[in-house]
Amino acid sequence: MAKYKPYTTKQGIFAAVFLEDQLQPGTFEHTLNYLINQEIDLTFFDSRYRNDETGAPAYDPKILLKIILFAYSRGITSSRKIAQCCKENLVFMALAANTHPHFTTIADFVATMDKEAIMLFREVLLTCDEMGLIGKEMFAIDGCKLPSNAAKEWSGTKADFQKKADKLEHAIGKMVDQHHQADNSNLDDALQKREAKQVKTMQKHLAKIRKWLAVSEDKIGKSGKPIKSNVTDNESAKMKTSRGIIQGYNGVTTVDSKHQVIVHAAAFGQGTEHDLLEPMVEETKENFKEVGKEEDVFTKTKLSADSGFHSEKNMKMLSEKEIDAYVADNQFRKRDPRFADYGRFKERYSKERSKHYGRKGLFATKDFTFPKDLSHCMCPAGKKLYRSGYKVKMKNFVATKESLKYNYNKTI
Description:
This protein is an alpha+beta fold and 412 residues long. The protein has four domains: 19-48 and 57-112, no CATH class; 158-217; 236-335, no CATH class; 360-411, no CATH class. Helices cover 40% and strands 17% of the residues. The chain contains twelve helices and 13 strands. Strands 1, 6, 7, 8, 9 and 10 form a six-stranded mixed sheet that branches. The protein has a three-stranded antiparallel sheet with strand order 11-12-13, with no helix packed on it. Strands 2-5 form a two-stranded antiparallel sheet. Helix 7 runs antiparallel to helix 8. It starts with 27 loop residues before the first helix and ends in a 9-residue tail after the last strand.
């Protein structure tokens, strides 16, 4: 038989730990520690504090910046987890000099340093430029959709929210009446408790909508008509992604081609990118102008962007600013004679697919499993779909609508 050395984790050790030795040269944490301590001017943070004569000493912004940026590099974004790491992780302890900022201190620092973040970004940009990391030969602009901490179900116009509030009031009244009837008939206590909990939740949602309606107005789109707002995060917007519709932001960056250094970044509450090219160009110029490096960086730097930024207005803007830009044409297939008859391939594919599966469309009724009461069904992917509409007339047929996520507002 094999023989192994005995071991156990039920033991303690006394070890001499030198915090400076935990930041090994060549690692990200060592570079981060050096830059913040030696290279980046952080005196602009001093204006945040008024405790030189009275008040308790504050945590040094250098300490907070180190642990926050290092946590972000490791995918940790929760203030509570960052505070916990400062007590349990040696690298965090070394960066924080064995101090333990409370999670509320970390959260407040992140939430209130919007202006300082811009100045910090420009200090980093200046450092990268002085080290020769920015080539200024080609800047690429691109974006990605980022979810916000808000549900898309809370989006709509004022008219939508007013209608939703009225439906909630009607549903609450109806459930309260049913609850009184249940009290008189001595029904199951557990059922009454569940209904009371649901009424409480609906009342909370109703109060949230009423509060928003009292202080907010509709956002107006480019067409002059109201567009959907969001009760939780009104700066975010609904947008299409490869994984469906999300409530979030369009995060757009300008990146240098030499070492992929980000020279500007911004988040926009709109899904389309047609209107975002000009502000990205202007803010990139402003960043280099503020650090005293370039009056107009695009006099010698090329610009590239994908077809999402292509529009006649943007092409005219780039021409007027004399920017050497390369933007993918989103209508190139319509203009290219080689794609003149591409539609026939779509038609052929549709016919071949229908012949192969013996039906038109992706799925047929037989692919779904229904119970007798039609309260839900199982889709081919194994997901349970709940009823969101009953006896709905569709093309001379009476149908039952099913949706993936149950929404009580649809059943009222």
